[in-house]
């Protein structure tokens, strides 16, 4: 597969103008305040498990509009804390799966909260358990165009709010040091990470891995891969909706969140990535407001660095927030 994007020197200088609504900050302040005001119950139940090196807890926390959101909490076996914590977000179409799929961070000594993504969990993996009870207008198959005609209705308004509330929830746990919380995720999870990093105060680190949901105006139509292609399909049918759709997406663009995120960050990018083109990742990286670094995988597609990137993240986090 050939490289399809700018050269690496060009990517490192790529800092495009990003469409940004004038009320971006007010929109998100009102959204998060509304979710917090909605309340809801945090439930943490220990789960019997064959795992011996970690303790497993089934978590339900209040997300957007107080909706119950599922998560797994894994702790090093017998740990009393307070522990540094990592909140992780998943890739597109996947659910929280099974606890045995999420052992690395707890094995490294962290409290690890892995958030289910509302409405997803039936595309791959071992499934999810969180519905999305909010309806939308016309959309193409998938999640990218649900409610895309208005930012208040857009699907990712709910998901990004869930992510902030996941950080809120983990900070209340007795086993967690609330002052040492990091966020991470790959692909869709990387885009969610950027939103959480901008909308949550006091994080010690953000680790967006090959992030999706960045620089929409370049990504939509630049790559013919899904999920961005869902937006192309929608616009091919809803002729004349382009400006309205792009205005909505600007409230959810990872580059706009990057401008507001200040926690130390470690990004990653794959130069042969046709799902999240490298220029869209660098658009967010080059706009990032806090100290940041990026791992570059020259010969990889969207899989990026995989376990190699996790090792880089573990070293980064240990040095950033010991």
From TrEMBL:
It comes from the Bacteria. Coiled coil: none annotated. Substrate binds at residue 92. The active site is at 187 (nucleophile), 273 (charge relay system), 302 (charge relay system). It holds the Pfam family AXE1. The lineage of its organism: Bacteria, Bacillati, Actinomycetota, Actinomycetes, Micrococcales. Residues 121-142 are annotated as: Disordered. Residues 131-142 have a biased composition (Low complexity). This is Acetyl xylan esterase. Residues 1-318 form the Acetyl xylan esterase domain. Residues 121-130 have a biased composition (Gly residues). It comes from Microbacterium mangrovi. One of its GO terms (molecular function) is carboxylic ester hydrolase activity. PANTHER family: CEPHALOSPORIN-C DEACETYLASE (PTHR40111:SF1). GO terms for biological process: polysaccharide metabolic process.
């Amino acid at each position: 597969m050939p490289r399809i994007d700018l050269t690496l020197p060009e990517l490192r200088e790529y800092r495009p103008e990003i469409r940004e609504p004038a009320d971006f900050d007010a929109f998100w302040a009102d959204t998060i305040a509304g979710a917090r005001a909605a309340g809801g119950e945090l439930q943490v139940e220990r789960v019997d498990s064959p795992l011996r090196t970690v303790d497993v807890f089934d978590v339900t926390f209040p997300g957007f509009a107080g909706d119950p959101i599922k998560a797994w909490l894994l702790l090093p076996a017998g740990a009393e804390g307070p522990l540094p914590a990592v909140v992780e977000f998943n890739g597109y179409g996947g659910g929280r799966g099974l606890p045995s799929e999420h052992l690395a961070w707890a094995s490294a000594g962290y409290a690890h909260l892995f958030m289910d993504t509302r409405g997803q969990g039936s595309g791959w993996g071992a499934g999810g358990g969180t519905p999305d009870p909010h309806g939308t207008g016309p959309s193409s198959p998938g999640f990218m165009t649900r409610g895309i005609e208005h930012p208040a209705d857009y699907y990712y308004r709910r998901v990004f709010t869930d992510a902030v509330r996941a950080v809120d929830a983990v900070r209340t746990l007795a086993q967690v040091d609330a002052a040492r919380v990091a966020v991470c995720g790959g692909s869709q999870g990387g885009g969610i990470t950027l939103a959480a990093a901008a909308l949550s105060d006091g994080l010690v680190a953000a680790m967006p891995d090959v992030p999706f949901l960045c620089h929409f105006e370049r990504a939509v139509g630049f790559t013919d891969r899904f999920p961005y292609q869902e937006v192309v399909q929608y616009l091919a049918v809803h002729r004349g909706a382009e400006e309205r759709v792009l205005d909505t997406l600007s409230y959810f663009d990872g580059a706009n969140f990057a401008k507001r995120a200040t926690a130390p960050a470690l990004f990653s990018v794959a130069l042969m990535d046709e799902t999240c083109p490298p220029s869209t990742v660098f658009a967010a990286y080059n706009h990032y407001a806090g100290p940041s670094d990026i791992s570059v995988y020259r010969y990889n597609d969207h899989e990026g660095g995989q376990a190699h990137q996790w090792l880089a993240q573990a070293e980064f986090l240990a040095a950033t927030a010991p």
